[in-house]
Amino acid sequence: MSSTSRLRIAVSGLHLGENCQPGPGVIESLREALGDSIHVIGLAYDALDSGLHCRNLVDEAYLLPYPSVGVDAYLNRLFAIHAECRFDVFIPCLDVELPVLVASTKELGARGVRFVAPTADALARRSKDRLPELAHACRVATPETLTVRDVTSLANAGLRLGFPMVVKGPYYEAEIVYSAAEAILAFHRLSARWGLPLLAQEFVVGEEYNVVALGDGSGDMRGAVSMRKTMLTKLGKAWGGMTILDEDLTDTAARIVRELKWNGGCEIELMRARKNNQIYLIEFNPRFPAWVRLATRAGVNLPLGLLNMALGRAIPIYSVPRSGVWYIRHASEAFGEIADLEAVLSGGRRRPRESNS
Amino acid sequence: MKETPPDIQRLRVLALSETGFVFDPRTGHSYNVNAVGIMMLEGLKAGLSQEEICSNVRKSFKTGDAEIEEDLSAFLRILKEHGLTDTRGADSPKESVL
User: Fold this and answer.
1) Within this chain, do residues A307 and A344 fall inside the same structural domain, yes or no?
2) A194 and A172 in contact (C-beta within 8 Å)?
3) DSSP class per residue in A57-98
4) Number of domains in chain A
5) Chain B residues near residue A243 by CB distance under 8 angstroms
């Protein structure tokens, strides 16, 4: 099948490093369902994003600037890529992309860039600093969370929440700290990397469960898979997990999706406290997680549903996911020549797969 | 039998293989039990009384009544510690794999 007759899908978030991004899991889920009938265009933010150099993952790839560089610069580059390679659908896979994309929905639509996104209001309501408000509206418990803007407010948070507590970046990363001294170190590490404000959160002892879900924008959750993390990285990210069937988790996720009328993919991080078995809402991520392919393997291909939503097609009717399906992440190397770097850094584009082989 | 009957709702959903591999689909935890454990767990899942379970074990393993009752009591305690009978989310299982 020629690349021009195939459905052309642009996917971002390609890096599989210590903090794995969702793009590869989304692409592999779509390939499992659609095989060679899709042509995948990878959108990378760094010349060394690993997925950019994986020949079997993306058919071609482009480099674009982070939205933080400036909305105009970001959109202009996205439109230039679209003009050059014409993708039918864009599946953004990073948190930082969504505010720009949601704010530019009309302009993107006018240029023929189709994508699925939540409303600006829903996106704002799930942000880390507004999580207690959302949890209250959904009748879900959440750990007490305080905004931290400086070392003084960090110290006050430590006095109020006690230790251990969790210090979190505004978008990514969290550290469990066991003393005021550790809290200050975490504050400087996280604020240097992600900016301010940070969040200080009560530490709930229990087991962490994550739910990946697809909302259709009307309040209905069209598919969901729960998993228990079985292996964690130093950053607390899942390196291994297993699907489970727990109606309490699914019901909690459905309440949150309904409250937000969430449109698109999401990951809901929950904790079942050891002390009272209560479910706590820890975080709501506005895109599929890196482990989304586990859901596909459990029989619920959510990226396929999202793609159908973007194309205006019916979302598949998902069956109950299989429990006990597990994964363990396997790190491997992507190789390249200096010419590959030159192409990306000078031309902003990795050559199409056909011309590489 | 001195123990009160356990709440077996959670036991009913456990998957139990003939090799003694037990999987809890609600938490993702897994365990291993020996041949006696398989028989006890099957009995509990089926809603048998503790007397009936002990009787079944006695027929298969030719062990004294007191020892069987002791083993069943210990087994029930372990199930409870792992949150598999009338409590949830107890301490993390020590024999969990993966």
Assistant:
1) no
2) yes
3) T-SEEEE---GGG-HHHHHHHHHHHHHHH--SEEE---GGGH
4) 3
5) 28
Contact between A153 and A184 under an 8 Å Cβ cutoff? The reply is: no
Nearest CB to B27; choose among A240, A244, A273: A244
Residue-averaged pLDDT of chain B: 84
Residue-number span of the structural domain to which A272 is assigned:
122-127+205-328
| Residues B96 and B30 sit within 8 Å (Cβ to Cβ) | yes
- Contact by Cβ (8 Å): A293, A327: yes
Q: Do B28 and A277 touch (CB under 8 A)?
A: no
The continuous run of DSSP H or E covering A282 comes out as strand A279-285
The pLDDT value recorded for residue A1 is 56
CA B14 – CA B22 distance, rounded (Å): 7
Say if the Cβ atoms of A274 and B23 lie within 8 Å: no
**Alpha-carbon gap, residue A321 to A301, rounded angstroms:** 10
Q: Is residue A44 part of a domain?
A: yes
Residues A30 and A83 both lie in one domain: yes
CA distances from residue A340 to A10, A54, A63, A112, A356 in whole angstroms, order as listed: 20, 12, 12, 30, 10
Q: What is the pLDDT of residues A333-354, one digit of tens each?
A: 998 888 888 899 989 998 665 5
pLDDT at A19: 86
Establish if A23 belongs to a structural domain. Answer: yes
pLDDT (tens digit per residue) in A187-240: 999 999 989 999 999 999 999 999 999 999 999 999 999 999 999 887 778 899
Mutate which of B22, B26, B85, B88 to test chain A, going by most A C-beta atoms within 10 A?
B26
Q: Kindly determine whether residue A274 and residue B90, on different chains, have CB atoms separated by under 8 Å.
A: yes
- For chain A, the farthest-separated pair of C-alpha atoms sits apart, in whole angstroms, at 63
Considering CB atoms only, which of B28, B89, B91 is closest to A277?
B89
Q: For chain A, which residues score pLDDT lower than 50?
A: 355-357
The per-residue DSSP string of A156-191 comes to HHHHHH-SSEEEE-SSS-EEEESSHHHHHHHHHHHH
Q: Is the CB of residue B27 less than 8 Å away from at least one CB of chain A?
A: yes
Say if CB A296 and CB A29 are below 8 A apart.
yes
- Give the model's pLDDT for residue B86: 65
**In this structure, are residues A273 and B87 in contact, taking their beta carbons and an 8 Å threshold?**
no
How far is Cα of residue A287 from the mean position of the Cα atoms in its chain? Answer: 4
- Phi-psi bin for A65: left (phi > 0), alpha (psi -120 to 50), beta? beta
Structure token digits, residue A4: 């021009």
ipTM surpassing 0.90: no
Give CA–CA dist A266/A237, Å, rounded: 16
CATH number, domain containing residue A71: 3.40.50.20
Rounded to a whole number, what is the distance in Å from the CA of A135 to chain B's nearest CA? Answer: 22
